């Protein structure tokens, strides 16, 4: 499985960005993570089932971010609204091979910078 994350960039606080994770190969669910230098990687949002109808969001992004899937394009998106400077990080998408399994496939990361 190969994952290609894109869509990062520089945006002002309050703005929006939409990240894309284009996937090839066999996988079940995708999650989005982020990492700031010097800090541990944290989960942002994830699909809890293969159809993407059940999702999880970190408390810090709930109500502002939305994960969605376009199965025709094998792409999972992360719509990020009302961005805050503390959302600045490198964002990664990752995929599971089975429900409840570990994330074993990782994309290369895309940088999101939110200016105040």
Description:
- The structure is a single chain.
- β4 and β5 form a beta hairpin.
- The protein has strands spanning 2-6, 9-12, 17-24, 30-35, 42-47, 55-57, 65-70, 75-80, 89-96, 103-106, 110-115.
- The strands form two sheets. Strands 2, 4, 5, 6, 9, 10 and 11 form a seven-stranded mixed sheet that branches. A four-stranded antiparallel sheet has the order 1-3-8-7, with no helix packed on it.
- It is 0% helix and 53% strand.
- It is mainly beta.
- The protein has no helices and eleven strands.
- The radius of gyration is 13 Å and the shape is globular.
Largest β sheet strand count, sense and barrel closure: 7 strands, mixed
Structural class: mainly beta
Kindly report the oligomeric state of this protein: single chain
Mean pLDDT across the residues is 94
How many strands? 11
Contiguous low-pLDDT stretches (5 residues minimum) are none
Query: H/E order of the elements?
Result: EEEEEEEEEEE
């Amino acid at each position: 499985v190969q994952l290609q994350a894109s869509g990062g960039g520089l945006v002002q606080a309050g703005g929006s960005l939409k990240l894309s994770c284009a996937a090839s190969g066999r996988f079940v669910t995708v999650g989005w993570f982020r990492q700031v230098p010097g800090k541990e990687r944290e989960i942002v949002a994830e699909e809890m089932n293969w159809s993407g109808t059940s999702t999880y969001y970190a408390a810090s992004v709930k109500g502002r971010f939305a994960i969605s899937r376009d199965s025709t394009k094998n792409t999972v998106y992360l719509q990020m609204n009302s961005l805050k400077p503390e959302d600045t990080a490198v964002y990664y998408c990752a995929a599971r091979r089975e429900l409840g399994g570990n994330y074993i496939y990782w994309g290369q990361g895309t940088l999101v910078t939110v200016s105040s």
